[in-house]
Structure to design on (457 residues):
């Protein structure tokens, strides 16, 4: 199948070619012709599947013809859960719409000054990409005219619901014309998302193509067990010194954790930045630009801040803390292996967190390989009873794992040393290791205020 068979016009085919895409992805093959035919769509697809082009290309084709209605409001509205994703979508619209005559776009997201957004809304606009909260603000002050809206896209709808945007979404949709085409993309179409999707669409075509299993095929996933916080830091240090590593995205559970870890790595001499939701949008943009330019080698981020990051140079995703939800794991590791490349996803796990790992494995229908780094093997047995248990994702009743036979984590200590990892030198052996001064001990975290280093400007 080629793009030429999907019904796209020559100017879009030209920009696709300039983007270097030769073959449409599965979601593009299924969604583009259906959207061009005017159908509403419910698409279950994961990040990295090519979903952005799947909704932008048919939407751009539609607006390449002049509007039959007067007014200056958007003809396409894309709702996304985060600012980063919104910016990514706008960038993709410029890329694919490069051959179109004066494509006008506006991004309406929180954390950015209102002034520029208001200025954009004074002029005619073709595509608005927005997060629901900020769009509601503009709607309430009467600045958005949806009278000529033709296409409504809900991107990562499940995430928007997770983030509590359901009421905002329903209010926004109620203000759009009934004649609109609705394209809903979500990792899952079950539960609340499915119910909302049915409410917002008319005779939709349901497309289910990308499972996490297919998507992650080019990402090598590994688990490294850590005995304690100090051991975890040593493992991280070894991973970051791997010569195969180009750029790494490290995930922490909290904003504070991201700041602290970035500061610690900065002290170790790494070119590191932190990215989290408390940062001003302008600073987040600068941080992402440094990452894109390759000036930052290591970015420490929280889940929400990292959504939508699409930087081809990210060779490694490291889960310093486990994600709160199994689904976040899929989003995290999807930040590597971009644009057809391969990537590594390494998850550092405390022995008490095995249950959370199993939840991830169940969600992705994949077993994550247990690995060790030579010289940094865990000393505690991985199968020891957990001293305490963090609540599991959703805490649903689960099948007892004993029923599966031997616990695969029993052998954690015996796993063969990582082939990709370099033998430990002085740094990992504890003889004047550069990490030994800078990394925190296992004691309680300090209450030191936010860092004043450049990553916390
Ligand atoms: P998305 O799922 O929209 O976040 O896209 C994931 C990545 O795949 C982005 O870097 C896109 O530029 C890239 N991409 C989208 N469509 C194609 C395609 N047909 N061939 C190769 N890469 C693509």
């Amino acid at each position: 199948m080629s793009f030429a068979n999907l019904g796209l016009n020559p100017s879009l085919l030209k920009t696709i070619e300039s983007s270097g895409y030769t073959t449409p992805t599965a979601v593009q093959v299924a969604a583009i012709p259906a959207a061009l035919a005017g159908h509403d769509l419910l698409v279950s697809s994961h990040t990295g599947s090519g979903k952005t082009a799947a909704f932008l290309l048919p939407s751009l084709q539609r607006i390449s013809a002049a509007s039959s209605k007067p007014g200056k409001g958007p003809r396409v509205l894309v709702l996304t859960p985060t600012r980063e994703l919104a910016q990514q979508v706008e960038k993709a619209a410029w890329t694919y719409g490069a051959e179109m005559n004066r494509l006008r776009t506006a991004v309406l997201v929180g954390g950015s000054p209102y002034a520029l957004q208001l200025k954009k809304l004074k002029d005619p606009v073709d595509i608005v990409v927005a997060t629901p909260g900020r769009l509601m603000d503009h709607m309430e002050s009467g600045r958005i005219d949806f009278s000529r809206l033709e296409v409504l896209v809900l991107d990562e709808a499940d995430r928007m619901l997770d983030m509590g945007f359901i009421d905002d979404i329903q209010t926004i949709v109620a203000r759009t014309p009934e004649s609109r085409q609705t394209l809903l993309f979500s990792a899952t179409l079950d539960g609340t998302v499915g119910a909302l999707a049915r409410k917002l669409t008319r005779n939709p075509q349901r497309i289910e193509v990308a499972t996490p299993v297919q998507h992650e095929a080019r990402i090598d996933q590994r688990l490294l067990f850590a005995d304690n916080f100090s051991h975890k830091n040593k493992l991280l240090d070894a991973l970051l010194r791997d010569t195969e590593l180009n750029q790494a995205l490290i995930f922490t559970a909290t904003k504070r954790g991201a700041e602290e870890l970035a500061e610690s790595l900065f002290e170790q001499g790494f070119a590191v930045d932190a990215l989290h939701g408390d940062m001003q949008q302008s600073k987040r943009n600068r941080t992402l630009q440094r990452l894109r330019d390759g000036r930052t080698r290591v970015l420490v981020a929280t889940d929400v801040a990292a959504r939508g990051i699409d930087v081809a140079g990210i060779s490694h995703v490291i889960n310093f803390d486990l994600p709160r939800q199994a689904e976040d794991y899929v989003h995290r590791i999807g930040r590597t292996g971009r644009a057809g490349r391969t990537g590594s996803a390494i998850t550092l796990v405390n022995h008490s967190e095995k249950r959370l790992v199993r939840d991830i494995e169940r969600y992705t229908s994949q077993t994550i390989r247990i690995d060790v780094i030579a010289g940094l093997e865990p000393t505690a047995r991985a199968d020891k009873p957990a001293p305490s248990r963090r609540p599991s994702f959703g805490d649903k009743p689960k099948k007892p794992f004993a029923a599966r036979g031997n616990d695969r984590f029993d052998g954690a200590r015996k796993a063969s040393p990582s082939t990709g990892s370099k033998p430990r030198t002085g740094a990992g052996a504890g003889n004047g290791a550069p990490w030994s001064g800078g990394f925190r001990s296992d004691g309680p975290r300090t209450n030191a205020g936010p860092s004043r280093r450049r990553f916390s400007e």
Summary: The first helix runs from residue 10 to 19. The first strand starts at residue 41 and ends at 44. The pocket of adenosine monophosphate is lined by residues 21, 23-25, 28, 47-53, 310, 338-340 (CB under 6 Å).
